[in-house]
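We close this part of the discussion by returning to an individual protein. The sequence in question and its structure tokens are set out directly beneath this paragraph:
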Amino acid sequence: MNRYTLVDGIPTPEPCILKWGAWFETADRRVAFDSNENYRVSTVFLALNHNFGDGPPILFETMVFKEGSSHDEDCRRYATQEEAKKGHAELVKEWLTE
């Protein structure tokens, strides 16, 4: 399965593209966001499986952006929301507090 929604915070496969699309249009997919004067760290639920090989679906992503730029400085992807929150905190420490 490639399409997922969040049901009570749990990634749930959605086989119907119309239901998935309706959910995607209005869903709050942000997991975490932090910034300072130089960088933004954003973690989101992707809603599409980004694992193109074996293993669990990759459904979450953290990206670091330099203020004033749309190009990412760092990007990490995760299978679970817990991993994503931990990874977000690590990137906040690395990019926003050092």
